[in-house]
Amino acid sequence: MAKEITSRAQDYSQWYNDLILKAGLADYSAVRGCMVIKPYGYALWENMRDALDKMFKDTGHVNAYFPLFVPKSLFEAEEKNAEGFAKECAVVTHYRLKADPDNKGKLIVDPEARLEEELVVRPTSEAIIWNTYKGWIQSYRDLPILVNQWANVVRWEMRTRLFLRTAEFLWQEGHTAHASKEEAIAETEQMLDVYADFAENWMALPVVKGVKTPNERFAGAEDTYCIEALMQDGKALQAGTSHFLGQNFAKAFDVKFSDKNNKLDYVWATSWGVSTRLIGALVMAHSDDDGLVLPPKIAPLQVVIVPIYKGEEQKAAIDAKVNELMKQLKAAGVSVKYDDNDAARPGWKFAEYEMKGVPVRIAMGARDLENNVAEVARRDTKEKMSLSIDGLADNVVKLLDEIQQNIYNRANAFRQENTREANTWDEFLKLLDEKAGFVSAHWDGTPETEEKIKELTKATIRCIPLNNKQEEGKCVLTGNTSKQRVLFARAY
RNA sequence: CGGGAGGUAGUUCAGUCCGGUAGAAUACCUGGUUUGGGACCAGGGGGUCGCAGGUUCGAAUCCUGUCCUCCCGACCA
Known about the structure:
- The protein is α+β, with helices and mostly antiparallel strands and 492 residues long.
- Helix 2 (39-58) crosses helix 6 (181-201) and helix 9 (311-331) crosses helix 12.
- Strand 22, helix 13 (425-434) and strand 23 (438-442) form a beta-alpha-beta unit.
- It is 35% helix and 29% strand.
- The relative contact order is 0.11.
- The chain binds one RNA strand of 77 nucleotides through helix 1, helix 4, helix 10 and helix 11.
């Protein structure tokens, strides 16, 4: 199987598509805009999901599951939210098919089976969840409600890309209800921190925490917080969002509670989510022209061992050593595979596991055994080392940590190099055209200016970084006064 | 949703203009030799040419419709 992918320099988009397909993460499907997540890609998602799920539970959240369908009347209750999503909703109008009288063996939608009320396939679940919460909440003693759900959602996208934007995708959505504004804001911020922690420490993906401008805000939210990451082509990608919803949904669904003084008030809300889009971010942040580069902490397979031998006798000797090593690695919690498939030669396997981004490869041959060593290759730097078999498992565990750190450091250095300040409009244009990346610049704070800049440059305000340095300046477009810089970029 | 390109063996593609028994490489299967960066020899299997109609004695090829993918644009809480 000769697998080659387009180089990043030649065509970054094509490189991404090739990589997803050839590394076996996903496939296209017979449904427009929908992908099949293949076992290797799903294993990656499972690892990400498990790590996040534990973080949610450690912060007091529980999982639940709400329906896929949302009655239209519920969906439209929170007007801004409904309006925001209206253009990309799939809608169920009928509940039955029947045999086509004019076309044997075919089916048609039964016109008799029109639903009295259409069902919206959830693009997000605020509506159905807040309709439910109404029945769960009466007093402050019922609060907070800290619920998360792992689910699929559908957004009818016109232009799709594997993992980055598909019509159906997997995600988690947290929906919490609180007795006070302060508590809800604290929750919103806490979950943003959880996301940033996950991105940096598990995905080795450095992110900027920030707040969205009103233009970019989630429809129905008071404030949208986000983590923004930078991809290797210099485009930004929103990797997660956490919304402070104020009392908007409580008002729309009439969810009130009695406080300690028996005074009625609307409940305060948050919602937050990350999706399979993170896999796209992971691929574009770390991988290279030879294939995926995966952080060891979420790689489906951390170590692969390839034997190199002539004849059964050598194979048996290698098997014995490898079995011992495998035992030690597994005991240390390392996922490891021994690929002694005789149908493929070592060189083929090397290329294949590089394509799949397995962080560490160990090759063991007769020559190594004589010297009591093994060849250890790391995927991130492609460096090869000859290490003693004694204590090899321990050294591999250390190496995995080092790789995790190195991938992060590399991505972090890239982001720093590609975050630049622009002080004039000419500088701003020049940076966007020549270097891409984040451009930190003053903005006068008006939606009109933001819109104008987007029109002229296709760059949007990714976020106003949290704990942003306050400094006097002049808006890069209008020259009006500004108190702080914001991060601009072209984005996915 | 508009413009462009494409869909033929598991994969990458040729064949389509000019209609006449469906091809190559690679992968796969069997046997053998091999094994330190995508092995070699010999033999073998595999495609209703995206799908549905139509024209024709005859359609991968011409016509109509439709589905899926890629690129550009619009859109994208």
